[in-house]
Amino acid sequence: MSTRRDVRRELMSAAISLSLANGFGETTVDEIASAAGVARRTFFRYFRVKEDAVFPDHDDCLRRVTEFLDTAGSARSPLSVVGEAAGIVLDMYAGDPETAVRRYELTRQVPALRERELATTSRYQHAFAAYLNSRRPDEHRDAFRLRHEVAAAAVVATHNHVLRGWLRAGGTGDVRAQFGGALAEMTDALQPWLDGRAGSEQPSSDEILVVVASRQASPWKIAEEIEAFTSRSL
Amino acid sequence: MSTRRDVRRELMSAAISLSLANGFGETTVDEIASAAGVARRTFFRYFRVKEDAVFPDHDDCLRRVTEFLDTAGSARSPLSVVGEAAGIVLDMYAGDPETAVRRYELTRQVPALRERELATTSRYQHAFAAYLNSRRPDEHRDAFRLRHEVAAAAVVATHNHVLRGWLRAGGTGDVRAQFGGALAEMTDALQPWLDGRAGSEQPSSDEILVVVASRQASPWKIAEEIEAFTSRSL
Questions:
Q1: A to B CB pairs, distance under 8 Å
Q2: Are A128 and A104 in contact (CB under 8 A)?
Q3: What is the ipTM of this complex?
Q4: Residue B4: is its pLDDT beyond 90?
Q5: Is A110 in the B-facing interface, judged by CB distances under 8 Å?
Q6: Which of A51, A67, A224, B198 is the one with CA 20 to 30 A from B16?
């Protein structure tokens, strides 16, 4: 006897296969249920509408992403936590490359499915921005909302860029490593802004200053440099 | 007699008003047409489906954005051209604050309309990334695709952040000035990465080095600094 999870995946697989073969609009719920070996009413026990069968894992994934963010603690940089959360989404695709590639082929053909996927993406992005806002002290939050929105969008864009490249390559290659590299590059570019070292708002007064200097440098010279730097930019 | 444009706007206005009053799902095309003083078949001369009547201007706006990008020339920085293109979208909203605010109220209530708007946003973002790619020399394009995707997403996030704030404030305040400020802040943060001064790829060999130094500094000392800098990062 099939488990709940098996039935879900069989319905998804049938929905994608039949839609690729005959068109999404032309494929009926009856046909999908029949191909998966279940009754029509069983389909509706799992999915509300036909579109949902193509993306059966996003609700669960969003729940896991939100739970991860809620319990991430404050020991790590907010942006790196969000990057790791996006990695959970990537893992969902990477865990089943064959399905991911076939679904990608299908969503490129069917605007309604592409819209559905975009809506899902926007829910992740919203969760990322909310998390970045939550990590900012109350008194600075409003001044950083733009940066958090942009950073959340940047993580999603980085995720989608890497995912799309991997899907176009037929789901081959180490997508996690590629994502790690892209994320590091994007983080290098955005972190200073998130730290308040650029832009028009005042950074927080408890900002930490990291000084990198030659061991041979005179401490007085270093002090001078620090003084010049902080009076300019803090 | 009404012009084409008047009828479009009357249908839109009726669609938004009736949907706010009675619910979007409960509002029929017949009711919208009747409230706008036209026949049902006239509605379908302007719009394919009911959703389209809520957003009558996006197709035209996307056409203007694309045309603007196609003819922008190469005298200005690609990112500032994209920022100006996003300003065309903002102007569409700002040109009719009352409608924009009522539509915002409606899209927050109706997931199908929110999905439709997200799909539209993604078309702008796609056009922005394509433009940034087109401005990059062939031999560097692949190395910069991630940056272009992130920059396009950042412009859209900046636009949406400012637009949403303005809509929540009831469509009052100088939204163009707010967008200009937010865009400048975001550009400050992202421009160095787009210029190739950060990230892991090699910058182009014809990159220009701008040296800022004290007029009292020894030229030999400056040369030494340049040498150290370029051997490290070029």
A1: 90
A2: no
A3: 0.82
A4: no
A5: no
A6: A51
